[in-house]
Amino acid sequence: MRRRKTVFVDADILVVGGGMGGCGATYESRYWGRDLKIVCVEKANIERSGAVAQGLYAINCYMGMQWNENQPEDHVRYARNDLMGLVREDLGYDIARHVDATVHKFEEWGLPIMRDAKTGRYQREGKWQIMIHGESYKPIVAEAARKAASEVYNRIMVTHLLMDHARPNRVAGAIGFNVRTGDFYVFRAKAVIVAAGGASHIFKPRAVGEGMGRTWYAPWSSASAYALPILAGAKMTQMENRIVLTRFKDGYGPVGAYFLHLKTYTQNAYGQDYEAGWFATLKERVGDYVDRHPVPTCLRNHALLEEVKAGRGPIRMVTKEAFQDPHKETVGWENFLGMTIGQAVVWASQNIDPKEINPELTTSEPYVMGSHATCSGAWASGPEDYAPAEYQWGYNRMMTVEGLFGAGDAIGGSAHKFSSGSFTEGRIAGKAAVRYVNEIGREQPVVSAAEYEELKTTVYKPLESYRIGRNEIVAGTVSPSYLLPLHGLQRLEKIMDEYVGGISAHYTTNEPLLTRGLELLGMLKEDLAHLGAEDLHQLQRAWELHHRVLASECVTQHTLFRTETRWPGYYYRADHPKLDDQDWHCFTLSRYDRDSGKWAMEKAPVYHIID
Ligand SMILES: Cc1cc2nc3c(=O)[nH]c(=O)nc-3n(C[C@H](O)[C@H](O)[C@H](O)COP(=O)(O)OP(=O)(O)OC[C@H]3O[C@@H](n4cnc5c(N)ncnc54)[C@H](O)[C@@H]3O)c2cc1C
Fold it and tell me: In whole angstroms, how far apart are CA 403 and each of 190, 390, 433, 537?
């Protein structure tokens, strides 16, 4: 095997992933840790990486406390309602009380925020959203992180965390490889903050073949935020709480500005308002959650899904009326041009002018994430001044592994953070990590050379497998001795789709399906030892697949454990079709034992701190 250079980097704080959470963590770590070495490592380039890479048109989490528009308590109530009762109120409150200060910083750094001409306040899109000219949102945020970091390492994919060999259950750093040069990196750090985004492409997407990159969640969000802590033995929570989005068909263009600002509405193929008609039957499943205001997102999905199943699709967004107003027409198009250009291109290519035709909506394949309208992720310690004792075991946002922190999609239990809340949570984690590093003082975690040397062999093995087996290739890509990352990905997506509640199963599953799904995932995991990578790009795909498979297994275990249907519209346990507050008004927790490959599941209580 070609000898690959090993580069050693020592840090006090290592931030894995330079998206919104990672940039916030890097920025705040420097504020509190003036003399510390703060390193950010990112598999792309922080200038344009993560879910905000393309830009956004709205900041979806802003209280407006300076104008008394909302208070943090209101946001907790909102998130709790939308998540059908189950949120970590301590974590949500902690973000909500600090998020406005984050947004003010963004404005100070040059992000143009739209203002209401009459009031002078930020232009609201909805109760929580403010409108921005956000094409350059990510570069603006990245600049602050770049200036704060001691070093930023772009183009390095982190594959594993390192553990301390002097003390059990303590993190000691991470390893990865440069996706351009192929160099191997060993990062030794006292604290690690994982902020590596959510997970797309674990369920089969609606757009396959040449269109498979067209998913709602970013295709490069590859579940590292979950797999890295899972492998390190961190507890995960609510991993069954996958998200399904109602979006414009084929381009996944966002609908928020359309509903909230343009005041467009939906109807079925026959021009009828269908939504409320499904709520009576829904009440039998979920009780009075359906009467809450606003109606939880999953329940609105449910109505759309049922209407389509009843044969009255497609569902359309009524844009023809709003688009007669030139201002609204401009906003409608700009909304896409500033953040989802692909939707404008899809409409152009399909002869859809929303002034003339009401465009179709559809529901996406499921994704796993912790910052949007669902709350999958790591189980984290809460704020010292606010969290119930049972939610506190150390430092704010520290996972159940010592020295391992997280932010954004990585942290579970607290949905509706969005871009601003993820950055804020990064700041919270950064501040806590600095305190942790200062308190452990000179006590450096011990990194074992044997461990990283062994991992080095493991990391590059797909290149080796390809080199040895490539002469047996048939038809360009079919090999008897190795599996290509794309083939592995498609196998994963098919298993998740058919057994764990994807689009072709109408988001429905049950115990026998999940059990079989786990068996098939187990076989896929075995075959991952035979991945073959043609080049460094494919090596990255290989490791993304490893991360996706482990996260998928976790999702499946959680879905099996929760024997109720808590979020109809996101997924259905056909063998337990009703919401069951008696037994399941709780969080689900899992812990993976990497030696035995076994999962331990448990419940944790939900504390309602706010009335
Ligand atoms: C389609 C879409 C629309 C959205 N619209 C809005 C909106 O209008 N308003 C709003 O406020 N929010 C919006 N959000 C939400 C917002 O983008 C996310 O909440 C936020 O980006 C999450 O922050 P994060 O740091 O967890 O993840 P990200 O910002 O995605 O950052 C994760 C980073 O980790 C890196 N990474 C991943 N794996 C590795 C690895 N193994 N090694 C090294 N680096 C790695 C990635 O490259 C990326 O840079 C939207 C999200 C999506 C997907």
Answer: 7, 19, 7, 31
The rounded distance, in Å, linking the Cα atoms of 366 and 202 is 8
User: Ligand 1, residues 75, 367, 371, 424: which to mutate, most atoms within 8 A of Cβ?
Assistant: 371
User: What single-letter amino acid sits at 366?
Assistant: P
The answer to whether residues 406 and 374 touch, using CB atoms and an 8 Å cutoff, is no
Q: What one-letter code names the amino acid at 302?
A: H
In short, whether 157's Cβ falls inside 6 Å of ligand 1 is yes
The pTM assigned to this predicted structure is: 0.97
Q: Which amino acid is at 163?
A: M
Give 195 Cα–ligand 1 centroid separation in angstroms: 9
Q: Give residue 416 CA to ligand 1 midpoint distance, Å.
A: 13
Those residues with Cβ within 8 angstroms of residue 611's Cβ, 6 or more apart along the chain or in another chain: none
Cβ of 192 less than 6 Å from ligand 1? no
What is the tens place of the pLDDT at every residue in 59-117? 999 999 999 999 999 999 999 999 999 999 999 999 999 999 999 999 999 999 999 99
CA–CA separation, 508 and 496 (whole Å): 11
Please indicate whether residue 102, judged by its CB atom, sits closer than 6 Å to ligand 1. no
Q: pLDDT per residue over 501-517, tens digit each? A: 999 999 999 999 999 99
Nearest-angstrom CA–CA distance, 106 and 97 = 16
The answer, yes or no, to whether any atom of ligand 1 lies below 6 A from the CB of 221, is yes
Q: What is the mean pLDDT of residues 391-420?
A: 97
Q: What is the DSSP letter of 270?
A: T
- The H or E element that residue 542 is part of is helix 536-561
| C-beta of 541 in contact with ligand 1 (< 6 A) | no
Q: Tens digits of per-residue pLDDT, 560-594?
A: 999 999 999 999 999 999 999 999 999 999 999 99
Cα-to-centroid distance, 20 and ligand 1 (Å): 6
